[in-house]
Amino acid sequence: MLKGRLGLETARIPHADRHGLLWLSRGELCVVDGCLHFLRGRNSLTPLMDQIPHQAVSTILLGPGSSVTHDALRLLARHGTLLAAVGEDGVRSYTALPLLPDRSDVARRQAELWSNPRRRISVARQMYALRLGEVLPHRDLDTLRGIEGSRVKNFYRLMAEKHGISWKGRNYDRAHPDATDLPNQAINHAATAVQAAAAIAVQSLAALPPLGFIHENSGQSFVLDIADLFRDTVTLQIAFTAARRAQQVGDTIDKLVRREATAVFRKQQLIGAMIDRIKQVLRMDEASHGAGDDRDA
């Protein structure tokens, strides 16, 4: 959308003044009398209808069992509210429409840091420091990756011992993900869930998924960067807890991981924590926002 086109940009409530995420599931997002509503139990004798304050939220996360009408999409686009289709409690991120926030400060800051080699490695070192608990003196990215990889191997072993799981090392064949042992399968499923949460956080801030500071080749490199910041405290905790439960119950490891991920996401308010972490690693408090420039143009 062009700056100030038809006055639509200035008519919107700035995202900085909105609430964050609104979770909806098992209903229809529709428009009634010009206002956004969420209708639950349409086929019931007593359906429930809630009016949604779409102008006051940044992102609506639409969960399983939901649908959305054309009028609802039009209304969301008109007010610049992001809509994303997600799994239960954000354990999957399926798609997000390109109805991005009205401010580009996060994306511009990310591009600024990423495009400067010195500042890019500085952000990467900060990310490793957040994970490893110390600032490493090395500035070569391959060296940092090697140090991190060595420590992660040790952490895998310690987590397996803590949860009473037999551990034979990390083994993952992308072509045959179910061919590995149970703990490795659990890690794969948990990583997918945490990456979904990271994708939601990145989408909510209108950050740039391809511009990663540690990961480089994926179109979701920055999403993978953010997910990795929570590997030790969230991903592996979910994985090994589920692997231990798999020894006691008959459910599939995928179902157990999703169930555990849902509980952990809720308890730790993971997506909100990821949003805060993105702002931290991009040093948004140091950036010159200039948020009013676009709206005043």
UniProtKB/TrEMBL annotation:
InterPro entries referenced in this protein's UniProt entry, alphabetically: Cas1, CRISPR-assoc_Cas1, CRISPR-assoc_Cas1_C, CRISPR-assoc_Cas1_ECOLI, CRISPR-assoc_Cas1_N
Keywords for this protein: Antiviral defense, DNA-binding, Endonuclease, Hydrolase, Magnesium, Manganese, Metal-binding, Nuclease
Binding, Mn(2+): 148, 215, 228
Known cofactor(s): Mg(2+); Mn(2+)
EC number: 3.1.-.-
Highest taxon listed in the record's lineage: Bacteria
Keyword Protein biosynthesis: no
Any Pfam family: Cas_Cas1
Subunit-structure text: Homodimer, forms a heterotetramer with a Cas2 homodimer.
Family under the similarity heading: Belongs to the CRISPR-associated endonuclease Cas1 family.
Function as written in the Swiss-Prot or TrEMBL entry: CRISPR (clustered regularly interspaced short palindromic repeat), is an adaptive immune system that provides protection against mobile genetic elements (viruses, transposable elements and conjugative plasmids). CRISPR clusters contain spacers, sequences complementary to antecedent mobile elements, and target invading nucleic acids. CRISPR clusters are transcribed and processed into CRISPR RNA (crRNA). Acts as a dsDNA endonuclease. Involved in the integration of spacer DNA into the CRISPR cassette.
Record's protein name: CRISPR-associated endonuclease Cas1
